[in-house]
Amino acid sequence: QVQLVESGGGLVQAGGSLRLSCAASTSIFGILHMAWYRQAPGKQRELVALITPGSSTMYADSVKGRFSISRDTAKRAVPLQMNSLKPEDTAVYYCNAQPYDSRTNYWGQGTQVTVSS
Question: Which backbone phi and psi does 13 adopt, to 5 degrees?
Fold first, then answer.
């Protein structure tokens, strides 16, 4: 069982930074693919960044060079550092976890990020 809680969302001006964090309550953190998704109003949920159990990362083209995902095994946390934010980054950001050997997906409740122009 995996429970995810996001934090760190808020309102920021364009060009600013925010740091989101996802806290995972689970005994299997070490085998989880962890990811951040986002969903803007009227749009489909999209993958923003992913980090594997081995700490390999991948990013959506729209955030490459601006966002950085990492994982802290000791704290069972997955931060997402977001720099040079743009109004189009405005969305609800969700933390996602998937065991490497399973198709089961776990989701957090989401945190709102709003970037003003």
Answer: -80, 155
Is there a contact between 5 and 21 (Cβ–Cβ < 8 Å)? Answer: no
Residue 89 is given by DSSP the state: G
At 87, is the secondary structure helix, strand, or coil?
A: helix
The terminus-to-terminus CA distance of the chain in angstroms comes to 40
Residues 43-89 have pLDDT tens digits of 999 999 999 999 999 999 999 999 999 999 999 999 999 999 999 99
Q: Which residues on neighbouring strands pair with residue 2, listed in sequence order?
A: none
Residue 16 contacts residue 87 (beta carbons within 8 Å): no
